[in-house]
Amino acid sequence: MHSRSAADRFRTEIIRRWGSCGIIGNDAPQAVDAERIIHTAYGFDAGQFDLFTESGSGSVADDGNTLSAGALASVYERSIDRETRRKKGQFYTPDDIISFMTGRALAYAGGMHGTMFDPAFGCGGFLIDMLARRVASCDIPSFSDSELTAQYRAVIDSAYGYEIDPGAFRIARSYLLLVLMPFAAEFTRRGMHAPEVHLRMQNADALSADPSSIKADLAVFNPPYLGEKGNKAVFDDVLNRYPHWRTHYRARMDYLYWFIALGIESLTEGGVLTAVTSTYWFTAASADRLRELVRTRSMLREIIIFEGRSGVFPQANVHAAVFTLVRTDDSSACDANRPRIVLLKDRTREAMLSAYRAHMNSTEFEDGSISIFTGPEQRTMTGSWVFTRKPARTERGTVTLGDICEIRQGIVPNPQRVTGRMASGGMLRGEPIFVFDEEQYREFSTTISRKERALLVPFHKNTDIGPKGIASPRYHLLYIDRTIDIGRYPAIRRHLMRYRKILSARRECRTGKIPWYSLHWPRTRSLFTTASIVCPYLSARPVFAYTDGIYAASDVYYITFRPGQKGDLRELAACLNSRPVIAWLHDHIARKGDMIMLTSSTLRSLPISSSLVPVLKR
């Protein structure tokens, strides 16, 4: 066994199979006129297939097995450095998930017909799998010449998609030569020239397309995984270039929301969409418009959740779900629809898929590896989507945490310190702007007056909040807002002037909401100097801690009683850390890898027994 470039291995595989099916003779593989074959046996413009003129990147073990689209995608993915992959949100779908998802889509569509659409086809996995199924379903030798031509055109026209990455696009396009080989071999055997055909698979941004012009019957895809945080320029570019997507935009959204919306809007009435995503959008506040679009313009047929780190996308560290919906404008059908919910609990992807297949036709089932049940009517799915077999226990008179408490986020310094992208003009990565570590604080505090040191306050990270209390802070925050006259603090002003260009570029500065020297979102100082309950947004387990007052960032929630609502926050903290509350939260929270994510909407909906309210008031 030895390793060769993926392109070399793929070229060799194509030529070998051309020989085995009679497109070329087996005796002279080195003399293959690939351009002639691509033109005459396939009907393609040979200039679009550069596999035979370029050297590929990545390598794969030559073990004698045929390369699949998934294997090629894996090789290509490994050839891209991790940072580039992260910036593009590229995580390719394993072969078994591709086959599984295509099978589920076809099951709900009632078979293969019409056009299949993939707005981010990568190395072609879903489109290739569907085309291979279509080709296999054709009795090619029995076709008349005219039928052979017509069926070939129909197969080519049935695949519609976009891929923005040129390397992945080349792989997908070249893999068609293998999938369509039975037709090419038949054209060659009959001495026919294949009809001239044009691929509907484009090397372009799917968001540039007019969804209403696509008219797909099936949409099966794995969208890009990219959050707006840290990628604001990407999102701004889409909003500026393609105004249509502004109606689906929400601050702090994920890029994949647009692709799900594109998939729905591209379907004909009764069309089927199957996608694999993270489960985050089921509960995220930034996905409320997407959930409403899905709820009101489709019938969710099935949601399969791979609980835990399933290995579906191990590089992305997300909890994955495969969902299938049917597009419809019938609002009454949408309201009455109840999705089939499947929770897969095994440790490996292979075991999960095996458990699913064993109970594929069950409507109700549960054991240690799988739980199947019917979800709620879509008319009731107006908030976050939480799917649990356990019925919600509602006590008469129960109130929610949001009824009696305000839930607010901490400070957004923005920027905390100089990042790699900012480092220029003598500025070094890691320099403190608003947030100082212990050594930076000690050094800086010797250069400013006692009055100015009062603006530097102890600053907690969310990891300081634990089940046994709040750890000592390791940082200091320069707490400065619009109420501060910066001219009265000359040393602080000199410090911030070094970063004025960066600070003035913030949106709130440009619109005049805050002065250039202020924290981005300082909130109200009293929130951090009075009693509250704090809890981290992201943690290994839900945890709530009472405090007389701490400063923390926006990844910490502050829970305080509403005006007029009297009570003891210590009693409430004990209630929130109780087993029933933690159990409820585990059934209603989103997850990211091994961590849980508490959203403000989940906290507000947390039920509190009305019998506890008098206890809190004591």
* SS-based class: alpha+beta
Strand order of the largest sheet: 5-4-3-6-7-9-8-10-12-11
- The total count of strands amounts to 27
What can be said about the biggest beta sheet? 10 strands, mixed
Count of DSSP helices? 25
Uncertain ranges: 55-65, 391-395
From the N-terminal CA to the C-terminal CA, the straight-line distance is 76 Å
Overall residue-averaged pLDDT value: 86
Write the layout of secondary structure elements.
Elements: E1 2-5, H1 6-20, H2 34-40, E2 59-62, H3 69-79, H4 82-88, H5 95-109, E3 116-118, H6 125-137, H7 145-157, E4 159-162, H8 166-179, H9 181-189, E5 200-202, E6 216-221, H10 232-241, H11 256-266, E7 267-278, H12 288-297, E8 298-306, E9 320-327, H13 331-336, E10 340-344, H14 349-358, E11 365-366, E12 370-374, E13 399-400, H15 401-404, E14 405-409, E15 435-437, H16 438-445, H17 450-453, E16 456-460, E17 465-466, E18 469-470, E19 475-478, H18 490-497, H19 500-504, H20 507-510, H21 526-529, E20 532-536, E21 538-539, E22 545-547, E23 551-552, E24 556-561, H22 569-576, H23 579-588, E25 590-592, E26 595-597, H24 600-605, E27 607-608, H25 612-617
Parallel strand pairs: 3-4, 3-6, 4-5, 6-7, 8-10, 16-23
Antiparallel strand pairs: 1-2, 7-9, 8-9, 10-12, 11-12, 13-27, 14-24, 15-19, 16-19, 17-18, 20-22, 20-24, 21-26, 25-26
Helix pairs in contact: 3-8, 5-6, 6-8, 11-12
